[in-house]
Amino acid sequence: MNVDAPMAPRKPHFSPLKMAPFILVHVVAVVGVVASGFSWKGLALAVALYFVRMFGVTAGYHRYFSHRTFRTSRVFQFLLAVLAVTSTQKGVLWWAAHHRHHHKASDKPNDVHSMARDGFLWSHVAWILADQNDGTDEKRISDLTRYPELRWLEKVHLLPVVAMGVVLFLAGGWKALLWGYFVSTVALWHGTFTINSLCHYIGKPRYRTGDESKNSFWLALLTMGEGWHNNHHYYPRSTAQGFYWWEIDPTFYVLKALSWVGVVWDLHVPSEAVKSAMRVAEPVAPEAVAIPVPLEVATSDAE
């Protein structure tokens, strides 16, 4: 896999067999709700599992595995990975490798999902289904591939999904499976995907990042803080993506609480100097010192 070659959709190929499960989950969710009727209990279950698994995406896939913005134990690292893959967004190694590539090439010709260059449909969902993006560039994730348990989970990343479905069915029958997995997962997919698509289109930028990333309050609510996307592209090292008290970031609040009991530690937040630099509306003085923005993540070990 040549990561420097253009990854935007020139002539993308989609395998019907690979697309079928994605389409089927949508069909089952819609037809199932229409056939069985609306349920407040079902909706509550769907919302609960949406946010639990969204935390797996935001804290796990993104802030930990992709950017290593905090540290944790090897046990919790694995549990976080298991929670993340219940979102049915492929394995943590695949997710982290593609996301790190995105940061290196954001909105440039070889960005894997650029709203600005390739439009909404590609950046929102088509890129993840295209055969050309099936591979994983392990050179980008050497800090993760040295853990055999993560390599194993990558091979069986659907196992936690199946286990979750079985537990839901045994606990509450078809309706629990319908609302807890199918409805919740469709919402979770598209909630997550809005950050790749809409957060490069709607909202406002605070910082000059060289791409089209934006900050959006409403998308931050939907994605537990990921909507502060321009903040994140400016300073991806930060565990907190909401830089100010009014920028709601539930993922960071949960991680902060976990740090109080020693489950995670070394949460990184931007200094006042970092937060005040490189503003969109402020010209850069010739003598100004650039704030380093690490696009490649640290490789600190889980302990």
Describe this protein with a few key phrases:
single chain; 303 residues; mainly alpha; 55% helix; 1% strand; disordered N terminus
Topology:
Blueprint lengths: L15 H21 L3 H27 L4 E2 L1 H12 L6 H13 L10 H15 L12 H4 L2 H8 L3 H38 L20 H6 L6 H6 L15 H11 L3 E2 L6 H5 L27
Antiparallel strand pairs: 1-2
Helix pairs in contact: 1-8, 2-3, 2-4, 2-8, 5-8
Verbal overview:
The protein is mostly helical and 303 residues long. It has one domain (25-276). It has helices at residues 16-36, 40-66, 74-85, 92-104, 115-129, 142-145, 148-155, 159-196, 217-222, 229-234, 250-260, 272-276, and strands at residues 71-72, 264-265. A two-stranded antiparallel sheet has the order 1-2. Helix 1 packs across helix 8, helix 2 packs across helix 4 (92-104) and helix 5 (115-129) packs antiparallel against helix 8 (159-196). The longest helix is centred in the middle third of the chain and has 38 residues, at 159-196. The protein starts with 15 loop residues before the first helix and ends in a 27-residue tail after the last helix.
**Structural classification:** mainly alpha
Biggest beta sheet summary: 2 strands, antiparallel
**Quaternary organization:** single chain
What's the SSE pattern? Answer: HHEHHHHHHHHHEH
> How large is the share of residues in beta strands?
under 5%
